[in-house]
Amino acid sequence: MQKIKDSFYAALRDRLAVIDPARTVTIRGELRPAVVTEENETATAAQPEPEVFYLTWKGASVEPEFASAKRPLLRLQCEVEYSSEGTEGCAGTDRGRSIGAMDSELRQMLSPSSAAVKDFTQTPAVETGGVIFWADAAFSEPAITGRRLTRTAQVTVFGFSEEN
Question: Hey, what long-range contacts does 64-67 have (CB within 8 A, 24 or more apart)?
Fold first, then answer.
């Protein structure tokens, strides 16, 4: 299951680097595309940064019709959360436009809706010959907390089990 998660994250990260090279985040002193998988980062009590896509895995299950297969088809639920406080020059009144731009970027990152499965336990990562694919994102209504406007998108990711 970890290869599926890692491959989905890497696909979004690499696609964002092409779509909007300026959307970056610094984590542990390293500048990188602004896609973060929370389970792969150091635990912190700090609030997530605005203008960054945060991936959180919410659960996994086996597709019932593939339950008895040698390598069952897995269904993983991924939540993508992002927020904006707008820009200082607009006193934050452009946060809706910023969320709209991030919505568009996420849709672009999710297209095409498949990617190669890679093994990231090796450097460089090696393609396994497998493929993951995902359904269209389901976007929530934006929520306001103080100065911050936040949206989440639910994405269902599918891939065949790595274990025989």
Answer: none
* Helix, coil or strand: residue 41: coil
- Examine residue 112 and say whether the peptide bond preceding it is cis (omega within 30 degrees of 0): yes
What are the tens digits of pLDDT across the range 76-133?
999 999 999 988 887 777 899 999 999 999 999 999 999 999 999 999 999 999 999 9
Classify residue 72 as exposed, middle or buried by CB count within 10 Å of its CB (0-12, 13-18, 19+).
middle
Quote the CA–CA distance of 134 and 118 in Å, as a whole number: 16
For each of the domains in the chain, give its residue range(s) and CATH number, in order of start.
Answer: 2-160 (3.30.2000.30)
Question: Residues near 17 by Cβ (< 8 Å), separated by ≥ 6?
Answer: 33
Helix-then-strand count for the chain, H and E: 2, 10
CA 160, distance to chain mean position in Å, is 19
